[in-house]
Each structure stands twice: as C-alpha cells, then as structure tokens.
Amino acid sequence: MGYVTDHAPSATDLSRCVQCGLCLPYCPTFRLTKRESASPRGRIAAMSAVLEGIAPVDEAFDEALSFCLGCRACEAACPSLVPYGRLFEGARAELAAQRPTPSRRLRRMALGRALEWRRFIALSTRLATIAQRTGLAQVLPGPARRGLAGLRPLRQAKSSVGRTVEPSGVPTGTVALLAGCVMDAWFGPVHEATIGVLTTAGFRVTVPEGQTCCGALAAHDGSTSDARRMAGRNVEAFADVDLIVSDSAGCTAHLKEYGHWHAGGDSLASRTRDVTELVASLLAEGILPRLATRGEEVAMQDPCHLRHAQRIVAAPREIVRAAGLTPIEIDPDGLCCGAAGVYSVLRPETSDELGRRKADQVRGTAVHLVASANPGCEMQLRSHLGTGYRIAHPVELYWEALRASQL
pTM score > 0.85 for this model? Predict the structure, then answer.
C-alpha cells in the first residue's frame, strides 16, 4: 500500500541516510536493547521498505516507530544531516492514518483538541490540585501517580494570555511570549521569571490573545491536521510581533519548524527564540548583569529538544554562571530522560528505566539543585529523584538571584 499522507517520509530525506551507524551510540532505545529495529538506521530502513512497497504499515512497523522517543539525538550525531525528526513525524502520521486504533483516537482528542481548550486545562489543573492536597495521588495507577509526583505544587492562577508587562523605563523592544498549554497552568513561575528577566533587560513583554498550544505533541503523535490548525492559529496570533520567545524547549523547537506545518510558518520560525538563547545573548551584550559567585552547584540536564533539535548547549550554562552558580555536568551525551511527551504513559517501563538512569546521574554528583529547561524533563526528574531535590528552569535561577541582589 505504501504511504497515503502528504506528510509521509520522502525518498529524498530517506536517501540521505547511508546506514553508517554513527548514530547508534546516541540512541537511547538502541543502547537499552541493542536491537537494530530500535535504532535510527533500523527505523529509517523500515520507512524505506514501506516507501518502496517491500513492507506494509503493519504491527512491526508500528512497534518500531512507537518505541522511538523522538529525542533526535541521532540528528546531532549524523554526518549526513538526515532530518530524522521530520521522518519520524511523517511515519507517525502514516500510522495514525493507516492504523487508527482506539488509543490513537483518544490521543488525538487529548493532544490535538483538548490542549487547545483552556477550560479543559483549568479543570485538569483543579483535579490535579485536589489529588496533590488530599494525598489521592498515592493511590492512583502507576503512570498517573508518577505524573502527579513530577508536578510542582499547583496553584490556581489566571491565564497569562492577554497580559502585557512594561519595563521600568522606555521599552527597547517588544517580545511576545508563547503561553503554551501546560506551561501556563502548571509552570507559572517559569513564565514569571521569563517576564521578569526580559522586562529588566528593557523589553515590553506581551502574551498575545488568540494563541494556542504550539502543536508539538499532536505533530509527534501523527495528528497532522491538528498540528497544522494550531500552527495556523499561532501564525495569525504572532503575525504583528518582531520577536517570539518560548520558555519550554520542546515548544521552541516546534515553533522553529513551523515552515513545515504552515504556509506562513517560516516567518514565525525566523522570529522565534528559546528564552535561554535570548537571555544568554543579553548577558553577552552586557544588557543583563552577571552576579557574584555564590559557590552553589547546579546539575545540568539537557532537554533533548534544546540540545539535539536546537543545538543549544552553552546558553543554559551561561545563565547559571551569571546567576552566581556553578554548573555541574551529568551526561556528556545528553541522553533522553525518558519523558518524551506522552511516552511515559505509552511506554512506562522504558520511560522509567531511562528516568532512573538520569536520576542516578544526578545523584552521582551529590548536588541537590538541578537545572532543566523543559517541563516534561522537569517532571520526569522530580518523579524519579523524589524529595530533597529541587528542579528549576535556568532562567528561574537567574531571576531569583537577580531579585536577591537588588534587596
């Protein structure tokens, strides 16, 4: 049958893989299993076989692609610059089209529709808050219990959408913030830190009306029509701003690839910055101050969509140093922590194993403060490290130090 969607893996992209195997040591699922079918080149071979009509989009193909975390570590290691992320999303689109299982229909409703409904997010937040405060989280099934254990203490707060915050002096420019879906409801302090740091740098920060979820989770799961619709809404919402910032690494990576999802997406992508790269550039220019060293150490966890998809590695460390803290490395390869969107729900055993390994890397440093620039990674780390550890966004750490220095 071959491929049926217009997002299917293309012959041009597939042909760039020369099957050299240099990606294998960087693939978390290959390192866990040592199976070729669980490696990037094995999955690309499967995609090519379907394209050539040699193999169908069947259960084996489904297993190979569903086992992939989509971490894109293989992209950073690939000498042929194979766009694995695009191939992966295209293959998932085919699975959604040709194998529309009840699980996929349910996920499409959750990832492609519900994340756009702020009332749904508000209701979910309310229920999670009750579970946290009553101890109900401890008796829930495994994935739900781990998910709630990974959350920060929740508080009901008004959405940041529609908000504009002015700097103390004349604005030097305007930055539009992506509110996101769960970021706005569950990680409000990260937004507050982002707004605080950028207004200190002289920017007016606005959170435009009309924006929605970035669509990354829908795209990764193969819900292409939903991902396109969300991209269209955001292209329109951010049409009149010069600079767009996101404080979730996964969202930023997806925004930067909007050209693949919407006709006007290239313009939005070119104006998008991850908050870590923007703040690091402001530090380099001397617009933001570097604070006195305090001697406290911070374990650095690299979110996959910051390190591998965006190739941003130095910026979080520069921000931590500017906060007067000392960054401590835990993993030179930056292997995935196992969160990977909804992977922790769909593949709990693999996710748990990767989460345990990442937590052990942190424990090996004897450091109890961890910097992570992505919400899923933060939740995964918190659920596996347990009490006694703090996980925060690098910009949060800088904002806290900056406010303390002004007292």
Answer: yes
72, 85 contact by CB (below 8 A) = yes
The count of residues in the chain is 407
- What average pLDDT does the chain have? 92
What the block records as the tokens of 333 is 């390869």
- Asked whether the beta carbons of 299 and 36 are under 8 A apart, the reply is no
pLDDT band at 143 (very low <50, low <70, confident <90, very high): low
CA geometry: angle at 242 spanning 240 and 247, to 5°? 105
Contact 379, 328 (CB under 8 A): no
Q: What are 274's two structure tokens?
A: 């991850």
Domains and CATH numbers, the chain: 11-100 (1.10.1060.10), 290-405 (3.40.50.1860)
- In DSSP terms, 246 is beta-bridged to 274
Separation CA 345–CA 351 (nearest Å): 8
Closest among 73, 113, 338 to 221, alpha carbons compared? 113
Residue 81 pairs in a beta bridge with: none
Give residue 169's pLDDT: 87
Tokens encoding 225: 């029509």
